[in-house]
Structures are given as structure tokens and as C-alpha cells.
Write a structure and sequence with these properties.
By secondary structure, this protein is of the alpha+beta class. The longest helix is centred in the middle third of the chain and has 54 residues, at 401-454. The chain is built from 27 helices and 31 strands. The chain folds into five domains: 5-154, 2-Layer Sandwich (Beta-Lactamase); 173-279, 2-Layer Sandwich (Beta-Lactamase), CATH 3.30.450; 300-399, PAS domain (Beta-Lactamase, 2-Layer Sandwich); 494-654, Histidine kinase-like ATPase, C-terminal domain (Heat Shock Protein 90, 2-Layer Sandwich); 667-799, Rossmann fold (3-Layer(aba) Sandwich), CATH 3.40.50.2300. α16 crosses α21.
Length: 800
């Protein structure tokens, strides 16, 4: 096998090795082929060589000595292998590249690497190889050309460093930079440019200008103006430009454009973009703050004047100019305040401004100005410069006439709060005693009813029993009024039309107030619905009618009106209470004697009455107040002595539709049919009464005195239970818990809760399920039997 590499050129000869021996080919020998080959090799700008798989050289041009410092023969004799002079840092890469090229049968490749010359210096070579393969596709040899690219590589490195420095400069700036050529094509941009314009890197890398411009134009508020500016600049290459760009999202950019020049002239344009959004906002904020300050100063309700150290007014707002007749700025200001206000050269001794300048502290004084007929608060505030020196003062004059009125309104609000707290305290007392009272009244009233049913009409005891019953009824009524005004009464709200409630009460009210008083009702059509306990609203109407009747001992007029209305923040602020929204307004007005301010401020207090001894309980209007508050509404009273009184009730609007009341079961159908009732009541006297009433009413009873005993009883007695009647509050286990535990095994069982206790979450919220009902103690036997029958009778709607 021959080994060859291009040898050094000596006297027109090149070197070739054959089987390890070196021979010279002399072009003068007459060999035409040798002459041509020598001419070719000696004129190639580099070292031509042929190399084999083991990196040995078969022939080699003489130029190799200039490149490496070694004569060609040292390579041809294999004294030096080419691998030995390849820089050790580059050798692995070069070997891998050659191996990879041979593995994929590449025909041509170029590899750049460093070599170490004989003198130890380094040179960069570009090795251009033509890969030769045998018939089986195996790599056989390589014919190549070695070029010295050291200077070129140095130039490239310098250029790379220059470009790197330029890129670092571009990337370090806070501005977005875009460079375009003379044709407007993108040449280079920095990352900040992409960030500012939110252009994906792949779009810029594609160099598709139209694609990039679409990202730009889509963000601008005025894209056509942007393009027009670009066109003008490209039409005038030497022109410089700067303007502002506004974005749809509120950002603002400064845009600068400069021509890019070379010795040959303008070769492109540099665009610079700076995000000045925050600066613009800050400038606008400063300008706005200045305008706001000037607007605020000029629109302040207080009269404000700015003075220098000689009491000259150098600035005055509109209120001061109007109040004191001061001229506008630019007119005859400055003027001395003491001369203008008092006609004197010096301010008086008690002038707040004089005290302020002498002490360096604020000074306040309140005076009455007779010529203005106003109560004024004068306040002088020192003006301090950066060196903490007093350089003047600011004079603030406030009209406090309305403040006095506001303070009076605040006093009224405090009175309302005091009343609310007083009623809450009484309410706690009422709620505390109601349970025991109701149990006692249930037994008294219940047994009275049973006795009256048993006594013959002509019994000598009947009148006595009726008196007992009347006393119990009055006691029950008093208890209910206490609960009503304290807002602890259990209510049964429903959606209702207030016009229907008033119309239904009209006949009763006429009988109640008498013929001498004219009753007028104004029920406006289209009235919104409200969600109330209609029975309680009827109580409100009766109490207000009675109150009006007593205020009109002779003839008079009682006017009841309904209308839709609103509570706004202004009304709520004036009254000291109220939630803004839509309300139905029920007003009751009379032409009676009216009330003075002291009486009006206490009108809703419990037990407060202007009637004589024994003529009133003082609970009528307190009850009205409690019912309205428990219904989620508000009530206000208006009155003056001799001008009558007006009570305005605001009930929240309900969007739901009104429903009709269910018809009561006829009295002939209240007796039982032998159904089994489980009666659970911890109060023995109450349980005994209920057992008597239910047994005589036709029902079969099981009894227990608490929930645990009831559960134990049902375990022994497996008969079906049609209805559970249970007290709500009992020791060991309450009625609600008992009902829930029994419902799992007896889902068809109905439940009737009874209680004299009112301060219980279950009762106040009426959270009863289907098949459950509630009956408030005390109640009559007839009411009990009617309720039980109504629960046990099948629903006609379900039967259909």
C-alpha cells in the first residue's frame, strides 16, 4: 500500500513516498504528466495531500513546511504522524468528525482545527477532504487540501468579539433597538425590543417583516399613523425623528429613529423604543394632582385664604371670595385681611392668625358674625418652609351653623339607640318569663275551656269560669305584646299584598274608632308584595288606630295609605338607620293633638304612656315598633303639637308572588278518628291538660315526659304512631332531636311542636320540614284539635 502526503516544493519538485521510500519527481525530466502535476500542486494556495485510514500520508505538497515547520519527508517517512501535530484540545472533535463522515459515506467535508508547529506556535487550518470509498463502500483514502486560515480566524474572532460587544451593548440597554437596512428589511434587534413589542423570537428569526409588522400593528391604538410615519422616514433617509406611540392596553412608547450611515451614505435606519408608560402616568398623576389640588382648593366648602407674614391675602378660594367679597387672583390681591374684614391696619389681639404666627402652632376660635348671620369656626394653620420656618398662614373659615343641626340629629340617633337597648333589655326579661307564663296560661285557659264545654248554659259556676278564662286571655295578650315589641315572638311570615290586609281590616277599624272619626284609606294599585306575618300587621293597624282614636277625643280624620317607595342613603343618613332599597310604605296619619319633641323621642319606649292611670299599658306603640323591626322593616314618627301625628312604616319589597291563606277545617270535622298520638311533655300539668283535651277529642294516646322515655316507650309498644306532639325544649332530649331520631323508622309520622319558650333558633327561623308544624303556647283546646285534625287529614291536592 502506498502512503502519500503533499511534500515541500524544492526546485520545482514535489515529494511522494512509495512503500516507505522517498522519491523526487523532476518536472524537467520530460515526463508530461509529472510536469503537469508539479505545476498543479505548486500553484494551489495550500498543501495538497493524500492520506490513508491510519492518518499516514501518501503524498504531500511542499507548502506543508510553511504551514507546520516540518519538511514533507518527515511525514512521508512517518517520523511524525499528522495526529501528533493536531492540537490536543481539537483532536477528539476532529477524529469524531472524520469517523462520523466515513460512517455515513460523506464525500466532501470541511473541518477547522488548530495545529502545533515545529516551533511550538499554533496555526489554524481548514482541512478540505474528498472521501474515497472502495467498491464495498469502505473508506479507502482521502484526498485533501490544507489551507492556512489563521489570519481569517483572527479576523473572525475579532469580528465575533465586536459583534458580541455590540450585542451586549444592545442587550444591556433598557430601550428596544431595531436595525433595518436601506430597503427596510430587519437586520438586527435586541431582546428588549421583542419584550416591548411582545413579538415571538421565531417570528423575528424568520426575517419575515410582514409577519413581525402584524404583531406591531395589532397592539397600537393608531396603526395607520404608525405606518404613515414609517413611510415618510423611508422616503427621506437623512431625516431624524421622535414621537410617541400609544397602545390599546394603555402603554406608551417613545420612538426615536436615526439614519445609519457609512462612508458610502445611508445604509439603513436605527429605531429605538422606550417604554415611558410609568413616566407618562407619573407626569399625568403630577398634573392631575396639581389640577385636583386647585379644583379641591377652589371647590372646598370652607372659605380658605393663604396669607404671608404681613397678613396679606395672596390666595383665596371661591368660597372665601363669595363669603367675604374678595377679588379674584390677578385683580387687587394681595390685600390685608384685617383691613378688608375689620377696617383696621392691624389684626385684633384675639385673632387666630396673630396667635398662629407668634406661636407657630394652629389656633382655632368660634365666633358669630352678625352681618352674615352665621356661626363661624376660624382656624389658622402655620405655613412651614423646608427649613421649618413659619412663612405665613392658612386661614380656614368653616360655617358651623349646620353642624349644630347635625349634632341635634345625632342626639336623636343616640336616643333611638338608647331606646333599642332598653327594649332589648325588656325583651330579654319577656323572653325569660314567657316560657313559664305560657305553660301556666295554657293550663288555666285550657281547663277553663274544658269546664265551659262541660257546664250547662244555666250553671251558676259558668260566669266564674268565664271570668277565669277572660283573665287568662288578658294575661296571654299581655305576654304576646311583650314578646312582640321585644321581637321574640314566633312569627309565620308569608308573601302578601298589603292592600288586601288593610282592606280586610277596614270594617273592624271603623267599629273600633267610632262614628265621629272619618276613616280614609288610599290603597294605591300596583303595590309590591311584602313578606310578613299578616296577623301581626293587623295588630299594628289596630294599635295605631287605637292610638289615633285616643288622640282625637272629638271629631277627626284617620288616613291610612299604601304606596311603593325607596330608602336611599340620604334618608338613612338623616334618620340614623335604614338599609337602602325598595320598600312598601304603610302610613297612618291622624288629625289629633300631636306630640312635642320630648314625647316624640320616647314614643316607642315600652311602658311609656301619656294617657291617665289605668287607661293604657304603654305597650301599644312599643308592640308596633317590635313587630315592624321583626318583619325587617323600619318605622318613623312625625308630629307637632296641634298638628296631628304620622307613622310611616317601611316593609322590604318581596319579589315572590302572594299566596292565599289555607281555609280552616270546619268545626264539625275537628274530632279524631281514633288515631294514635304520642304526647311528649315534661311539664306534668300541661301534659295532663293535653291528654284530657286529646282523649276527649277522639284520639288514642301514648305519654312520655321526655325524649328518652318516648323512645323507650316505642320500643315496647310497636303500634303505628300517626302524630307526635312534643314540647321543643325538654331535659335530656329536646323535641327536634326526638323528631329526627324517630323519623328514620317512622317517615309517615307527622310532628306537631308546642312550646311556650320563644328564644330558640328553631322557632325564630321556623325551620320545620314537610309534615311538621308548630303551635305556640298558650292555645285553646279547640285550636289544638283543629290543628291536629288539619295535620292528619289527607291533602285533597295529593288525593287528586
Amino acid at each position: 500500500m502506498k502512503h502519500g502526503l503533499r511534500s515541500r516544493r524544492m526546485s520545482g519538485k514535489f515529494m511522494e513516498s512509495s512503500c516507505g521510500n522517498i522519491s523526487a519527481v523532476d518536472p524537467s525530466s520530460g515526463s508530461d504528466a509529472a510536469e503537469k502535476l508539479s505545476s498543479l500542486l505548486n500553484n494551489v494556495p495550500g498543501a495538497v495531500y493524500r492520506g490513508l485510514r491510519d492518518w499516514s500520508l501518501q503524498f504531500l505538497g511542499a507548502e506543508v513546511e510553511r504551514l507546520t515547520g516540518y519538511p514533507p519527508e518527515v511525514f512521508l517517512r512517518r517520523e511524525v504522524n499528522w495526529k501528533q501535530i493536531v492540537h490536543p484540545e481539537d483532536l477528539p472533535r476532529v477524529v469524531e468528525r472524520f469517523r462520523s463522515a466515513a460512517g455515513t459515506m460523506e464525500k466532501n467535508l470541511r473541518v477547522r482545527y488548530r495545529i502545533r508547529r515545529r516551533d511550538g506556535s499554533e496555526r489554524w487550518l481548514e482541512d478540505r477532504r474528498q472521501m474515497i470509498y472502495d467498491e464495498d463502500g469502505h473508506f479507502s483514502r482521502v484526498d485533501g487540501l490544507l489551507l492556512d486560515i489563521t489570519e481569517e480566524k483572527a479576523t473572525e474572532d475579532n469580528l465575533r468579539r465586536t459583534v458580541s460587544l455590540l450585542n451586549a451593548t444592545l442587550e444591556s440597554t433598557a430601550d428596544g433597538i431595531l436595525v433595518v437596512d436601506a430597503a427596510g428589511k430587519i437586520a438586527i434587534s435586541n431582546r428588549r425590543f421583542l419584550e416591548l413589542w411582545r413579538i415571538p423570537e421565531e417570528v423575528m428569526a424568520s426575517k419575515e417583516d410582514e409577519h413581525a409588522i402584524s404583531f406591531v400593528l395589532g397592539q397600537l391604538k393608531y396603526p395607520e399613523a404608525f405606518l404613515e410615519k414609517v413611510r415618510k422616514l423611508y422616503a427621506a433617509p437623512e431625516e431624524e425623528s421622535s414621537d410617541m406611540l400609544e397602545f390599546k392596553d394603555g402603554r406608551v412608547f417613545e420612538r426615536y429613529s436615526l439614519p445609519m450611515r457609512s462612508p458610502e451614505g445611508v445604509i439603513g435606519r436605527v429605531w429605538s423604543f422606550r417604554d415611558v408608560t410609568e413616566r407618562r402616568r407619573a407626569e399625568e398623576a403630577i398634573l392631575q394632582a396639581r389640577n385636583d389640588w386647585e379644583d379641591t382648593f377652589d371647590n372646598m366648602g370652607d372659605a380658605v385664604t393663604v396669607h404671608d407674614m404681613e397678613f396679606n391675602i395672596v390666595h383665596a378660594n371661591r368660597a372665601a371670595r363669595e363669603l367675604f367679597g374678595l377679588p379674584l387672583l390677578g385683580g387687587t390681591l394681595p390685600v390685608k385681611c384685617c383691613e378688608h374684614f375689620h377696617g383696621k391696619a392691624d389684626p385684633p389681639e384675639d385673632c387666630p392668625g396673630r396667635t398662629c404666627l407668634s406661636t407657630g402652632r394652629s389656633s382655632t376660635r368660634e365666633v358669630f358674625e352678625p352681618h352674615l348671620n352665621r356661626q363661624l369656626e376660624l382656624r389658622a394653620i402655620p405655613r412651614i418652609d423646608r427649613n421649618r420656618r413659619v412663612v405665613g398662614l392658612i386661614h380656614v373659615v368653616r360655617d358651623v351653623t349646620e353642624r349644630r343641626r347635625s349634632e341635634e340629629e345625632l342626639r336623636k340617633s343616640h336616643e333611638m339607640l338608647r331606646l333599642s337597648q332598653k327594649m332589648e333589655a325588656v325583651g330579654r326579661l319577656a323572653g325569660g318569663v314567657a316560657h313559664d307564663f305560657n305553660n301556666l296560661l295554657l293550663v288555666i285557659g285550657g281547663y277553663s275551656d274544658l269546664l265551659l264545654q262541660r257546664l250547662p248554659p244555666d250553671s251558676e259556676y259558668r260566669e266564674d269560669v268565664e271570668e277565669i278564662r277572660k283573665a287568662g286571655t288578658r294575661a296571654s295578650s299581655l305576654t304576646q305584646q311583650l314578646l312582640a315589641f321585644s321581637r321574640k315572638q314566633v312569627i309565620a311570615p308569608r308573601v302578601a299584598d298589603l292592600n288586601e290586609v288593610v282592606a280586610g281590616m277596614e270594617k273592624m277599624l271603623r267599629r273600633m274608632i267610632g262614628e265621629d272619626i272619618d276613616l280614609v284609606t288610599v290603597l294605591r294599585p300596583g303595590l309590591w308584595n311584602v313578606r310578613v306575618d299578616t296577623g301581626q300587621i293587623e295588630q299594628v293597624l289596630m294599635n295605631l288606630a287605637v292610638n289615633a282614636r285616643d288622640a282625637m277625643p272629638g271629631v277627626g280624620k284617620l288616613r291610612i295609605e299604601t304606596e311603593n317607595g325607596r330608602i336611599d342613603e340620604r334618608w338613612a343618613g338623616r334618620q340614623g338607620y335604614g338599609e337602602p332599597g325598595e320598600y312598601v310604605v304603610l302610613s297612618v296619619r291622624d288629625t289629633g293633638s300631636g306630640m312635642d319633641e320630648d314625647t316624640l323621642s320616647r314614643v316607642f319606649e315600652p311602658f311609656f304612656s301619656t294617657k291617665g292611670q289605668g287607661k293604657g299599658t304603654g305597650l301599644g306603640l312599643a308592640t308596633v315598633y317590635g313587630i315592624v323591626k321583626q318583619s325587617g322593616g323600619y318605622i318613623s314618627a312625625e308630629s307637632r303639637p296641634g298638628e296631628g301625628s304620622a307613622f310611616l312604616i317601611y316593609l322590604p319589597r318581596s319579589e315572590a308572588l302572594a299566596v292565599d291563606r289555607a281555609a280552616d277545617i270546619p268545626a264539625t270535622h275537628v274530632r279524631g278518628k281514633g288515631e294514635t298520638i304520642l304526647l311528649v311533655e315534661d311539664e306534668e300539668t300541661v301534659r295532663h291538660f293535653l291528654r284530657t283535651a286529646l282523649s276527649e277529642g277522639g284520639y288514642d294516646l301514648l305519654e312520655a315526659d321526655d325524649g328518652e322515655e318516648a323512645i323507650a316507650l316505642l320500643r315496647r309498644d310497636g303500634r303505628p304512631i300517626h302524630l307526635l306532639i312534643t314540647d321543643v325544649i325538654m331535659p335530656k332530649m329536646g323535641g327536634k332531636e326526638l323528631s329526627d331520631r324517630l323519623a328514620a323508622d317512622r317517615p309517615e309520622m307527622k310532628v306537631l311542636f308546642v312550646s311556650g319558650y320563644v328564644d330558640n333558633e328553631i322557632l325564630r327561623e321556623q325551620r320545620f320540614e314537610r309534615g311538621e308544624a308548630y303551635l305556640q303556647k298558650p292555645f285553646a283546646p279547640e285550636t289544638l284539635l283543629r290543628t291536629v285534625r288539619k295535620m292528619l287529614e289527607p291533602d285533597p291536592a295529593q288525593e287528586r
